[in-house]
Fold:
Amino acid sequence: MRLITVSSEGKANFPKLSLSIANSLEQIQEVQRLRYKVFVEATGLQTLQNPEGLERDEFDEFCDHLIVRDTRSNEVVGTYRVLKRHGLKKTKAFYSEKEFDLTKLLPIRDSIIEAGRACIHPDYRHGGVIMMLWSGLASCMQREQAKFLIGCASVSLADGGNSVNALYRRLEKENFCPQEYRVSPKLKYELQDGPPQDVLQVPPLIKGYLRSGAWICSEPAWDPEFHTADFFMMLPLFRLDSRYARHYLRDAQTV
Structure:
């Protein structure tokens, strides 16, 4: 994957960003270090703390790791990992299958790639990083000739689950998949009734999925390790919103 750079000329408050794919153990560890800062240190999850300061699992070895870097500081500020067909042959399962029963997706399994471990540095959550990561995902879908992108999108339970309950009520009405793609959580998060929220804060990752045309395919699963409720997201390539398709696929040609 070649390097692309987004220019910030005339915008002093915005960095120059580059998109690439990790091609060494050192670069993968840079990714894992960012994930540790965001997923472990920032959330105070003591059970996941380790002296290496790396957040990693058994899937990392078999995935491609997209990297967005601030070219001024050379710091990794965003990442997404992608499990493609070659890696799936070795893992024998998608990461999502730790949380969801994907039996209904068996007929399209060979047409799927999986995205996961999306992570953006808190100082760079202004939209540019996530757009670059989505361009990288579009490139992966093109190269693999994949028809579907799947992934888990997490919502923190730090507020007692109020955000998850409100978000699911909205997505259930507007963004649920057709019956043939519905999956089921292995450890279901028990949704609660509650008053509607006047201002619903949709996490950036889920917002990116929805803007692109993705569905949710299940009630959320509970992830006790990260203390989150996880939504199973699916983006069929044919549903990629034309406005975003032009942007993603244009940039994908240069990656």
